Amino acid sequence: MNRKELDPDSSPQASFGARLRSSREERGWTQDELAERMGYSSQHVSAIETARKPPTLLLARRADVALASGETFERAYRKVRNSGLLEGFPQFIGHEAEAAEIRLYEVGVIPGLLQTPEYAAIIAESTVKRGAITNDQAQERIALVAERQAALTRTPPPLVFAVLDESCLRRPMGQPDVIKAQLDRLIEFAELPNTVLQVAPFSMGERRPLSLPITVLTLPDRSLVSYAESAQRGHLERDSTYVLPLLTAYHQLQAEAPSQAESVAMINELRKGTP
């Protein structure tokens, strides 16, 4: 029998396959025996072990049950799934899902928590066209946007403060109906009882204390975490020495920006001008 050797460090998918194979062999099972316990064909198990097919969440959970491995394979699956995301971002969204307060400032693009599915799809598809991610990774990114938004409906919901640079609203993105629906989504967001939406207009000029996108989370224990991205990686910061000045700058940004009512009025005016 030909045996394909994998480098577990070459990719999260290869790591998952190598882990599945080694766990199976430790128990002295054949692929047929593991496949029967998991409810899959031996050919499917072989494809997973050799990284010819990516694992699914269901397969990972069945592997954990069959191999009595706790959540080992489910955790490994999430690394596979998040392989198309910037470094640091999977850890950030874990904190975001439990945060008591979320403060975000964005430039140039509507942030994920406020995106419509169509807007999210355009961003993901454009990244595929540039060759930065695969089609499968694009679909995972779109699904992740929906999951992040769904997490905001938990009880009690987090307080969400969003300040958008005016460029977020004026940047063309797909067809006009996509932008119109996105502006509608922003107005709906502003009407929620646990949100505050403000637009930082170009006219703020030098009074703008932040120039780059930033998110600051207040966790349930009241500790602070910030997240920012460069072109190639994300950075999660937990040291209050660095996070507190960002929080101060964010408060200054909110104080200088127009109120939510004024911001919503601006969005409505832009919406009227959208074909």
Automatic annotation (TrEMBL):
Residues 1-30 are annotated as: Disordered. Residues 20-57 form the HTH cro/C1-type domain. It comes from the Bacteria. This is Helix-turn-helix transcriptional regulator.
